Every structure is written in C-alpha cells, then in structure tokens.
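I have a small job for you when you get a moment. Would you make up a two-line entry for one protein for me to read? No commentary is needed, just the two lines. Write everything out right here, beneath this request.
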Amino acid sequence: MSAISRTEVEHLARLARIDMSDEELDRTAGQLDAVLDAVAAVAKVATDDVPATSHPVPLTNVTRPDVVRPGLSAQEALAGAPAAEDGRFRVPMILGEEA
C-alpha cells in the first residue's frame, strides 16, 4: 500500500502553488512513496542502543583564538588611498546625488 497518494500530492502541489500535470503528479507520488519507504527502513534499523549522531566522526573547532591586535591608524589606512578628504576615503559620486 502506498504511503502517499496521488490525491495527497495534488493537494500539496496546490498548497505550494505548483502547477503539475497528471503525469508529474503520478511520478511524484511514486517518488515520494519511495522516499518514505527508505525513511521507514532506516527507522527500523535505528535501535535504542545506537546513539543519535549528526556526523559520523566528532567535530572539533579549528578556528584560531580571538586575540586583540593593534590595527592601522586612520592616517596609515588613508596613506594608500587614491584620494582622501576630511580623514575619509574620497570616492566618486554615484547616482548624481549630493551629500
């Protein structure tokens, strides 16, 4: 017996506002039924003595420690800029707007 019917797929498609042909509805019902069968097979294998896991191997954090270091001063940052004005980077005007 199918776990999901063509009528249910048609209802879901309507809720999702997906226009599906009769052929697509039939094919999708079969595909979703196969997915549900696979999930059921996995559920049968999973027992109480098998712990739930999200990854097969443990994950470790590989980021570096967050250490505060001195950065550039405003003058040092602007030293390599093609144009600067009032202690800021000067860039071309966009969209013809005045500041």
Observations:
- The chain is about 40% helix and 5% strand.
- The mean pLDDT is 87.
